[in-house]
Amino acid sequence: MATTGATGSVLVFSDVHFDPFADQALVPALAAADVSQWKSLFAASGQTAFSAYGTDTDYSLFESALDSMARTASGVDLIIFPGDALAHGFWSKYPALTGDASEAGLESFIQKTVTFFVGEVDSRFPDATVLWTIGNNDSADGDYKSAPGDAYFSLTAPAVASAFLGNDADRAAFLTGYSQGGYYALEPDGPTGIRYVVLNDIYWSEKSEETAAGVMELAWFAGELADAARDFQKVWVVTHIPVGADAKSLADKTEAGDAAAYKGLLADGFNNAFVALETAYSATIAATFTGHTHRDEFRLVSFDAATAPTELTSVSLSISPVDSNNPGYEIYAYDTASGDLLDKATYSLDLAAPGSGWSLEYDFAAVYGHGLATAGDWLTVAGGVLLDPVSRAAYADYYTAQADTDAAVSAQTLPVYWLAMTNATSSGYAAASSLLAAS
């Protein structure tokens, strides 16, 4: 049960995939210019429309999203970014559009892109701490290529530390961990406040070859949790990829009439180890934030289908509409005494209705009748998504921020999405799937 303290708020936005290549004619000038000139170059572009479905975030959409956040979350002192700053295909687009195939040229353009990104966020929220996370596209070498010592870390660390962290201790902690492995822990409010543990779970992906780095990070994570438990701290975990099933892939197979055998987002061993740690330290971990799926969803964390969940993973919408979703972000309310999440408000932009602007899409507790504070709340909402027509329709609508595309949840695919929501491991998913099929 959440303790009753003051209510704080935190802004979460994810998977921006900022695309400096959207106006291809502008790219050579951007490559030649100092990053201080980028804003004026973008502003002079004749391309002013927001990104379309199936594309990444262009300058106009990025600025619009940040301006909306600045209006709705002007007072927040904490922002969570669960990763993926860079656009898809960044590493091939740069040489193709500039004629520069050098590693130095690519790295310089990555550094400028992230420095511009960071500066634009900081200009709206100059006093906020921002928890910056590595996504699968955030590498100097390619998608899912994050590795210890990745040049991306050293290229981006100075801008992030300077703009997003407010004291020397946090900057030092960030620079030490992030510059080497892309993960770190912070205590902005000192040892009596919430400890923020920011992971790089790209190492744990089934698409990564960095098994040894993944094992080392798991050991580090376990140590952070043990230290926090010893000190009676609460922990917020921030990472990019959520535990459990690759729901979209399984739903696509289901729609095609194929047997939807389980496919995870993380390699099974790492997924299960992470679930085991979150379960073991459920009294310490107050919240877990992720992105990656580009969907508005949550996932219940337990080791098998018969065990009640002890943790909730919150999965953020993306700003990028590349996966045929509307852009969106969230503002969470939380109990400042316990660190427990209480509710969330989701804001979105309907790309199919030009001129409609960003607006409040829904409030979680108002729609589902329960907030985010307890396992009982999560289970009741999850049960409603499966059994209650009103909750089911709401979940299907909000999953893609009401984008009316082929990416939306259908009656045929809802069971797959529900199984991913309620089962964090392959064994739990398989057991629950069998029970659901037999009912």
Give structural notes.
- There is one protein chain.
- The protein has 439 residues and is an alpha/beta fold.
- The protein has a single domain, classed as Purple Acid Phosphatase, chain A, domain 2 (4-Layer Sandwich).
- Helices cover 41% and strands 15% of the residues.
- It contains 15 helices and 12 strands.
- It has helices at residues 27-32, 38-43, 59-72, 90-98, 103-124, 151-164, 168-181, 211-230, 247-255, 268-280, 364-368, 375-387, 389-399, 414-422, 426-438; strands at residues 7-12, 78-81, 129-132, 184-186, 195-198, 235-238, 285-290, 297-301, 311-315, 328-335, 341-349, 358-363.
- The strands form 2 sheets. Strands 3-2-1-10-11-12 form a 6-stranded mixed beta sheet.
- β4 and β5 (195-198) form a beta hairpin.
- α6 runs antiparallel to α7, α9 runs antiparallel to α14 and α12 (375-387) packs antiparallel against α14 (414-422).
- The two termini are 32 Å apart.
Topology, element by element:
Blueprint (H helix, E strand, L loop, with lengths): L6 E6 L14 H6 L5 H6 L15 H14 L5 E4 L8 H9 L4 H22 L4 E4 L18 H14 L3 H14 L2 E3 L8 E4 L12 H20 L4 E4 L8 H9 L12 H13 L4 E6 L6 E5 L9 E5 L12 E8 L5 E9 L8 E6 H5 L6 H13 L1 H11 L14 H9 L3 H13 L1
Helix pairs in contact: 4-5, 5-6, 6-7, 8-10, 9-14, 12-13, 12-14, 14-15
Q: Main sheet?
A: 6 strands, mixed
- For CATH, the homologous superfamily is named as Metallo-dependent phosphatases
- Looking at the structure, the CATH topology is Purple Acid Phosphatase, chain A, domain 2
Radius of gyration: 21 Å
Structural class: alpha/beta
N/C terminus separation = 32 Å
